[in-house]
Amino acid sequence: MKADLILLGRVTAAGATHAGAVAVCGERIAFVGSEHEALALRGSRTEVLGDRRAVIVAGFVDAHLHLVALARRAAEVDCSKDRARSVRDVVATIRDSAARLAPASWIRVFGYDEFFLEEKRSPTVAELDAAAPGHPVRLLHRTGHAVVLNSLGFRLLGLPPREVIHEPEGLLKSKIAAIDGGELTPLVREASGKLAAAGITTVHDPTPGRSMADLVALRRWVDEGEIAQRVVAYGDPDSFAEPRADGERFHLPGVKIMVTEASEAEAVAARVLAADRAGRQVALHAVEGGPLVLAIDALRRLGAARVRERRHRIEHAALCPPALCTEIALSGATIVTHPDFLRCFGEKYASELSEEEQAWLYPLRSLCRAAVPVALGSDAPIAPPCPLANIQAAVERTSERGHRLAPSEAIGAAEALALHTSGGAAAAKLDHLVGSIAGGMLADLVLLDADPAEVAPGEIASIGVRATIIGGQVRWNR
User: Which phi and psi angles does 368 have, rounded to 5°?
Assistant: First the structure.
């Protein structure tokens, strides 16, 4: 047997790092051991990557992002906090875009957050009208849960003008998406390339309100190779498909259920029960407070054993006091969360939350110590899809301006690395295929310049990715 690919470096697996190498045959890992033994499998066509200074880790799993939204960002106007510091900046950016774009074409802007603007408010309809009178304008909030339109935008959508529209789901969202339209394939391909450059080999995409047509398009991009990563997608709870074997590249294990302040306990529980009876995994969006209580209660009704078997999950759990950590542990739920929000939006948390509430932000240590299964995701495009930055945030818990938030909830780098590899794989019931380095596993691997557990915490995010391998194929190489 000759290997198709040999990676040289120190293998980091199960919390330990040792000198060695990994040999790959076809799509799977054939051998993990010493460099000498691995090189004995070298043939005339074997590709060899790495050296003794490199570190080999399992491919990163981003357990929560929105792939099409991330792809669309490349064709939209960026007004995030690093690009626009005031309403004046937002208006000027829109005015500049109007001067460049064809008349009457949509100007799609994303990323603003009133907290990070000098005026501490959203731009108004009148300000958008003045900036681009001949263009419809859609200004999307950083979270995706609010939008501002100008008057022409409202007229084209057949809606009465108003200021900020909160939770722009349903009709409004579908109409804007239809107008966005266009050729998404090259944007999706570009987004997949950026994910590969960050070492991401599997993504979970729990986008709410997704139609079956959206899922068909997503699968087509995977089948045609436009998306290199393995994709775990979640559908709409009111029209989910029957369970089926999805192969190793595209998986449709369950449904996304939004739980908000407006949700009713019985309705949430009924949706969870229906999905569970249909053999589907549920991904419950619940950020804090009442919604988190409703999500936990709905899962508790199923029983912890059933929840663990299905690996039902709660997305975000951003503000989670100790009592709820205990309830989550008793429910059997998996938590998928985003510590890099502490870096990206830590100043907002520090300003808007009391010291007591800040202590409950992304309580990774408490959840892990309670034996709650945890996986890490970026929630891209809200935050950048960068696992190493997410790992650093889990260790440092520091905002961009150096404000530490609940340092007692920090975890070690090796533990955080596991949450971004094996933890993410387990959250989608793929841990028998990916997420660890062992013979017979699919060869989803990343070659790094250093071990996250062996550098200073502040240097983790800057560790270089040398190569990303998905199913034995080199998908990115520096």
Answer: -65, -40
Judge contact between 294 and 268, C-beta under 8 A: yes
Chain centre to alpha carbon of residue 294: 23
- Give backbone dihedrals phi and psi of 423, rounded to 5 degrees, phi first: -65, -45
Query: Using CB atoms within 10 A of its CB, is residue 478 exposed (0-12), middle (13-18) or buried (19+)?
Result: exposed
- Angle between helices 341-352 and 387-396 in degrees, nearest 10: 40
CATH class of 1-58+437-478: mainly beta
The architecture (CATH level 2) of 69-180 comes to: Roll (3.10)
Q: Does residue 79 surpass a pLDDT of 80?
A: yes
Residue 139 — φ and ψ, nearest 5°?
Answer: -110, 110
List 29's β-bridge partners, or say none.
Answer: 24
**Per residue in 367-406, pLDDT tens?**
999 999 999 999 999 999 999 999 999 999 999 999 999 9
> What is 183-434's CATH superfamily?
Metal-dependent hydrolases (3.20.20.140)
Nearest-angstrom CA–CA distance, 465 and 192: 15
Q: 363 preceded by cis ω (within 30°)? A: no
pLDDT of residue 182: 57
User: Are 142 and 117 spatial neighbours (Cβ–Cβ below 8 Å)?
Assistant: no
Per DSSP bridges, beta strands 60-62 and 200-205 are: parallel
- Specify the domain boundaries for CATH 3.10.310.70 within the chain: 69-180
Alpha helices in 122-169 (DSSP H): 125-131, 151-157
